[in-house]
Amino acid sequence: MIEQAAGIYRQLAQDRPAAFLPDLAGALNNRSGRLAELGRWEEALAAGEEAVTIRRQLARDRPAAFLSDLATALNNLADKLSRLNRGAEASAMREEANAAIGALPQLPAGRANDEADA
């Protein structure tokens, strides 16, 4: 089912990337997690890498909307890299994730919930 979702979002994103690339990245991230649960680490890594590539593009275009998702995808990818004994690459992903979190726009005190509800 998760593979089907990624396929559907991939087709939709070809015609309307602004509308469906975020969903494709989410589906790929979910697929990566499920593959990892099955011990299919190389496939999980490939799906995670594709999710990160898309999320980097989205965060570059709309940082306020997508930096948090990028940080999550980078940390997920780092977990897969660690599992595959690729520690240096995992560390680089975690550093990039921390930088993304640090670059998040700061909301005025008391406004975080207002913005989340909008």
Features:
Serine Threonine Protein Phosphatase 5, Tetratricopeptide repeat, disordered C terminus, flat, 118 residues, mainly alpha
Architecture overview:
The chain has one domain: Tetratricopeptide repeat domain (Serine Threonine Protein Phosphatase 5, Tetratricopeptide repeat, Alpha Horseshoe). 84% of the residues lie in helices and 0% in strands. The protein has six helices and no strands. The protein has helices at residues 2-15, 17-37, 41-61, 63-83, 87-102, 112-117. Helix 2 (17-37) runs antiparallel to helix 3 (41-61), helix 3 (41-61) runs antiparallel to helix 4 (63-83) and helix 4 packs antiparallel against helix 5 (87-102). The termini are far apart.
Largest sheet: none
- Assign the CATH superfamily: Tetratricopeptide repeat domain
CATH class category label:
Mainly Alpha
| Share of helix, binned | over 70%
Quick gist of this model?
Helices cover 84% and strands 0% of the residues. It is mainly alpha-helical.
What's the arrangement of secondary structure elements?
Layout: H1 2-15, H2 17-37, H3 41-61, H4 63-83, H5 87-102, H6 112-117
Helix pairs in contact: 1-2, 2-3, 3-4, 4-5
